[in-house]
């Protein structure tokens, strides 16, 4: 086959999507810059789950839980017996105890599959991921010298490196204040998450996270799901500063007590 024919066939395959030439940054790595979002129901439950009613019958179908396929490799999260009991207790109390309800930052990996977009800004030294939910963000250190966590946080401390065309992010330094989903799946402050981001094509990322926590799980386990590029005209992150929506939930009792005290003083 002639060089000209090879070129013609390559161009044809590239045009119809049979081949994918990843956009690259000036230092030669795949360019993940853009706004991304999941279409999965993983934020409701990482495992397989049926549709279910919501907490308030007045909301009808609008407040119902959608069914969804799980994203856990092997189907089930390998909890230790005592941790499974805690997960089940969390599920019973999910409508008041889920950190999402309280507008706490989502943590990793949950921030990547909440029903809100997030933006990636990429440089050779660091990669910024900014999340619409709660205006959270994290900076992934890409220097060869890893950064150690100085204090435990919701979003942890992230160190990244490249394995071929895959971005690998090692996350440690978490607190125990986040959940993995609305079904009560949880972790301790010993959580260790290794993420892998691989461009399938220009508009899709294959996302994978390996999760370890010796206090909660019997072994490491893995989730996989696709992330989709937002290709809307003028796509951008908007604000979802949810603290003001959670104030009454968090501090309503305090406010009521203060009002009662003020009423007594007035008398």
Commentary on this structure:
- The longest helix has 24 residues.
- The protein has 267 residues and is of the alpha+beta class.
- Strand 8 and strand 9 form a beta hairpin.
- The chain contains four helices and nine strands.
- The chain has one domain: Lipocalin, CATH 2.40.128.20.
- It starts with a helix and ends with a helix.
- Helices cover 20% and strands 23% of the residues.
- About 6% of the residues have low confidence.
- It has a nine-stranded mixed β-barrel with strand order 1-2-3-4-5-6-7-8-9.
Summarize this entry quickly.
The protein is of the alpha+beta class.
Q: CATH-wise, what's the superfamily?
A: Calycin beta-barrel core domain
Task: Report, as a whole number of angstroms, the end-to-end distance.
Answer: 98 Å
Range of strand content: 15-25%
CATH class: Mainly Beta
The CATH topology comes to Lipocalin
Structural class: alpha+beta
Low-confidence blocks of residues: 5-19
Characterize the largest beta sheet: strand count, sense, and whether it forms a barrel. Answer: 9 strands, mixed, barrel
């Amino acid at each position: 086959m002639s060089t000209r024919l090879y070129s013609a066939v390559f161009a044809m395959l590239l045009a119809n999507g049979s081949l994918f030439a990843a956009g690259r940054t000036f230092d030669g790595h795949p360019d993940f810059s853009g706004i991304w979002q999941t279409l999965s129901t993983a934020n409701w439950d990482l495992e397989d789950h049926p549709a279910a009613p919501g907490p308030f019958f007045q909301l009808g179908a609008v407040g119902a839980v959608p069914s969804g396929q799980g994203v856990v490799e092997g189907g089930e999260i390998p909890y230790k017996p005592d941790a499974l009991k805690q997960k089940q207790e969390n599920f019973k109390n999910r409508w008041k105890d889920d950190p999402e309800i309280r507008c706490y930052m989502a943590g990793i990996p949950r921030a990547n599959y909440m029903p809100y977009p997030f933006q990636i800004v990429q440089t050779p030294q660091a990669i910024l991921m900014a999340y619409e939910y709660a205006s959270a963000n994290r900076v992934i250190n890409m220097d060869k010298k890893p950064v150690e966590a100085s204090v435990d946080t919701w979003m942890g401390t992230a160190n990244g490196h490249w394995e071929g065309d895959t971005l690998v992010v090692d996350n440690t330094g978490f607190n125990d204040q986040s959940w993995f989903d609305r079904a009560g799946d949880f972790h301790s402050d010993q959580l260790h998450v290794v993420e892998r981001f691989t461009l399938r094509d220009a508009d899709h990322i294959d996302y994978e996270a390996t999760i370890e926590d010796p206090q909660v799980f019997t072994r490491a386990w893995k989730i996989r799901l696709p992330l989709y590029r937002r290709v809307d005209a003028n796509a951008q992150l908007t604000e979802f500063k949810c603290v003001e929506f959670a104030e009454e939930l968090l501090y309503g009792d305090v406010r009521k007590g203060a009002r009662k005290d003020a009423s007594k003083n007035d008398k």
